[in-house]
Amino acid sequence: MKEIIKLLRIVGIFTVTLSCSANNSFQNEDSEIIDLIIKTEDVKIGGTLTIPTNFNTSSLVVMSSGSGPQDRDETLEGFKIFKVIAEHLASKGIASFRYDDRGVGTSTGDFVNSTIEDHSNDLESILDYFKTSKDHLFKSFILFGHSQGGILAAKVAVGKESVKKVVLMGAPAVPLVEVVTYQVRQEYSHSNISQSLIEADVSAHNNLMRAIEDNKNINDAYSLFRETTESIFVETLSADEVADTVKLKRKAIAKADEFKIIYALPSLTSFLYYDPSRDYERIEVPVLGLFGGLDFQVPIHQNKDRMENALLKSGTDYHFITFDKANHFFQKAITGSRDEYATLEKKFVNNFLNEISTWIHDTNL
User: Fold this and answer.
1) Is-contact 83 89, C-beta < 8 A?
2) Residue 171's closest CA among 321, 266, 303?
3) Are 46 and 100 a contacting pair, CB within 8 Å?
4) Given a cut of 50, is residue 16 above it in pLDDT?
C-alpha cells in the first residue's frame, strides 16, 4: 500500500441532495473556523470553512489537494500546506474551504476506487452546498488546485458561471501518463544505468499502462515489464544478489505484480489519459499559474508551455509566476527531489503567499 500511495502522489453536473452539519466552530484573531460535513447522495465530505474577521472579498476559495488520499490540510511530510494557505488568506480578508478526500478524516467513501468523475462531483457538490446554504451562503468561487487538484479545478471551472477565478499550484498540463514516464526517468537520474536500458524501462511502463487501459495484451505487457525489471536488477544489484537467479526472478515478478495492480487502480487510471490542457483551452475566467523552478514531480519544462498555449487559445487573462528555488510543495529547496522534502523547513518560499492573495484582490470581480 505504501508504494501505491507513493505512485498516486506522482500526481456534467449530477443531481445530489445536500445537507450540512457543523462539528466544531471557534474564533481566532483573524477568522472564524467552522468544521463542516457536507452530505451528498453518495458520500459525506468533511472540511473546514475559514471566514475572516475582516471579510473583504465576495468569493470563497475552495482548495483541492494533489494525488493520493489527502486530509483537508494537505499534510505532506509534516507540512500542512492548505492550512497555512487558508490562514494567510484569512489574514487578508479572504474566505476559504478545504476538505478531506474520500475515505480520509471525516469524509466517507473509497478513495482508491474513486475516479476523476467522483472527485469532480465531490467538488461540484461543495459548490452546490455553499450556493444554497442558509448559514454559509456564497454565490461565487475561486477554485484552487494543487498538483492533481489543479486538474479537478480546471475541469469543474469550465462553463460554471459561479466560478470567477482559478489558481493552479504546480498543476499538470499534460496527461498524467506523461508525468509518470517522466518520473520513471527521474528515478535513474543519478544512476549508472545506460540510457538504452532506461528507455526500455520507460517503454515497459508505457506498455503496461496502455494494455491495462485498453484491457488487451496485458500478459505480453506484463512479461515485458518483468523482463526489463530483471535486466535493471542485473545492473543495479550486488554480484551476490545477481548470482542468486531464483531470488532475482522473484524480485522482478514481485515488482511487476505490484505495478500491474497500481496501474489498474481507478484513482490513477481515470487520470492517466485525461488531458487537462483541453479544459485550460475552455477556461473563460482569470487564471493564476504557480510554478516551482525545482519541481521535479510536475516539472516546469513539461507543463508550463502546454498550459500557456492552452490559455492563449482560450483568450482568458492569466498570470504566471515561477519561484526559482521552489519544489513541488513550494518550499525553498536545494535539489527539489522527493528525498529532500522531509528535511526542509515547513514554510513556503518568500512571497509565495502574498502573490496569491494580491492576485485575488487585484483581479476581484
Assistant:
1) no
2) 303
3) yes
4) no
Tell me how many degrees the CA angle 306-307-309 measures, rounded to the nearest 5.
Answer: 65
Q: Is the pLDDT of residue 14 over 50?
A: no
Q: State the pTM of this model.
A: 0.89
Q: Binning pLDDT at 50, 70 and 90, where does residue 12 land?
A: very low
How far apart, in whole angstroms, are the C-alpha atoms of residue 285 and residue 358?
Answer: 17
**Which residues have a Cβ under 8 Å from the Cβ of 181 and sit 6 or more positions away?**
202, 205, 206
Copy the grid coordinates of residue 157. Answer: 471551472
3-state secondary structure of 72: coil
Beta bridge partners of 143: 62, 166
Three cell numbers at 234? Answer: 542485473
Question: What's the pLDDT tens digit per position in 132-146?
Answer: 999 999 999 999 999
Radius of gyration of the chain (CA): 21
Q: Are 358 and 319 in contact (CB under 8 A)?
A: no
95 neighbors 61 (Cβ within 8 angstroms): yes
Rounded distance between C-alpha atoms, residue 91 and residue 93, angstroms: 6
- The C-alpha angle 347, 349, 355, rounded to 5 degrees, equals 110
In 3D space, the residue among 77, 131, 125, 132 whose CA is nearest the CA of residue 99 turns out to be 125
| Integer CA distances (angstroms), 113 to 45, 155, 190, 213, in order | 16, 20, 34, 15
For 257-297, what is each residue's pLDDT tens digit? Answer: 999 999 999 989 999 999 999 999 999 999 999 999 999 99
Alpha-carbon distance values, 141 to 144, 162, 182, 287, 326 (Å): 9, 6, 33, 13, 27
